[in-house]
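haha ok so turns out i had the wrong file open the whole time. this is the CORRECT one, sorry everyone. sequence first:
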Amino acid sequence: MLTHKQQVNTRYGNPKNKSNSLKELSKITGIPLKILKIVDLRGRGAWVTNIKSVRTRGTFKKNENLPRSKKLSAEQWGLSRVYAFINKIDKGIPLNHDTDLISVMLG
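then structure:
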């Protein structure tokens, strides 16, 4: 199963494991950089306030009762949320977070 990052890269013709900046993601997806920055910051905030939702480094298992040092970093979690946001928009899947940003994008 591909990660959100791998799915986005494949869809936009990049190498599967290429790392992208928010600016690059904005350019290739057409999603305003301002929106992607908000999604990233919200992901970093979730890392602080809801560490149980953060996946374990390497295995990507959720709800592991492990120390933060074994989990993805706040930066990784923020970008993970960005890639998931892009994937859901591209696939037309309803968002379970950041739904308010869709109206900003369309507005």
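Residues 4-106 form one domain.
again sry for the mixup
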